[in-house]
Design goal:
- With 249 residues, the chain is an alpha/beta fold.
- It folds into 2 domains: 34-114, Ubiquitin-like (UB roll) (Roll), CATH 3.10.20; 117-248, Rossmann fold (3-Layer(aba) Sandwich), CATH 3.40.50.
- The protein is built from 6 helices and 12 strands.
- The chain has helices at 2-30, 51-61, 75-82, 156-172, 174-179, 210-225; strands at 34-40, 88-99, 104-114, 117-123, 126-131, 136-137, 148-152, 180-185, 191-195, 201-205, 233-237, 245-248.
- The chain has a 9-stranded mixed beta sheet with strand order 6-5-4-7-8-9-10-11-12. The chain has a 3-stranded mixed beta sheet with strand order 1-3-2.
- The longest helix is centred in the N-terminal third of the chain and has 29 residues, at 2-30.
């Protein structure tokens, strides 16, 4: 009976010790201040801003960040400020409390998801990338994306509303994705496509009915060009409805 009583007292003392220790630790942890900023993003992102730039954005969102208690940092506000950058699709800010042998250290984690470029625009209205949602991504000396290029004289609205769906269609088709390397917009919004294989140009005409036009060109490729005729034609035109007109060299 006495042995069980000693066991019970020992358990109670252990519980009291743990409660006191955890309470003290929780209080210390609650007062942990921000000592550093850790930035995370995918290294293989085609578009990415430098870690130093992200840290600058974080500190601009909260000018008194260093030394500030973690619990007083507005993570949501910092996220929204970072997302104002045109190259950023999504930002996540989280707080980390790390403990060494003697004290606690506060870390502000910043996870960045950059925008994925779908096309590069080089027009009279400017040069930039567009993602698949039609959002602009500025050019930078720090990155270069390997995407389809569109040149010519056209507006931003035309690029976003008319050209972008066309580019996304090309990207979704394995044949055309591998074949088309550049698009040029001529007068009256007529498109000239530059293929990778063959020494010829494709006159698409207006962007209207582009799915049917590309289907006709693909049929022409299979019936004519596939027979070692890739370099015998200078131009292939599908400007006119249900017609493929090929001009020899």
């Amino acid at each position: 009976m006495l042995h069980k009583l000693f066991q019970l007292i020992a358990i109670l003392l252990l519980i009291v010790f743990l409660v006191v220790t955890l309470s003290f630790s929780a209080k210390e942890s609650r007062n942990t201040t921000c000592n550093s900023i850790e930035v995370i993003f995918r290294e293989n992102d085609q578009i990415r801003i430098e870690r130093e730039e992200i840290i600058r954005l974080v500190k601009s969102a909260d000018t008194k960040l260093t030394g500030k208690q973690l619990r007083k940092i507005n993570a949501y506000h910092i996220e929204k400020e970072i997302e104002k950058h045109q190259a950023v699709y999504k930002a996540e800010v989280y707080k980390i409390t790390a403990r060494d042998t003697t004290s606690y250290s506060g870390i502000l984690g910043v996870k960045i998801r950059h925008r994925d470029p779908a096309v590069r625009i080089m027009s009279s209205s400017g040069s930039y990338y567009l993602d698949r949602f039609g959002e602009k991504i500025p050019l930078s000396v720090n990155y270069a994306a390997n995407v389809l290029v569109i040149t010519g004289n056209f507006s931003d609205d035309y690029a976003r509303e008319r050209l972008l769906p066309f580019v996304l269609f090309i990207e979704s088709d394995s044949f055309w994705k591998a074949q088309i390397q550049q698009i040029h917009v001529k007068n009256q919004e007529e498109l000239i496509l530059t293929p990778l294989v063959g020494d010829h140009l494709i006159e698409l005409g207006s962007i209207d009915d582009y799915e049917n036009k590309l289907s006709n060109i693909k049929a022409f490729y299979k019936q004519v060009l596939a027979r070692n005729n890739w370099n015998k034609y200078a131009r292939i035109s599908v400007k006119y409805r249900n017609q493929v007109i090929a001009k020899r060299r």
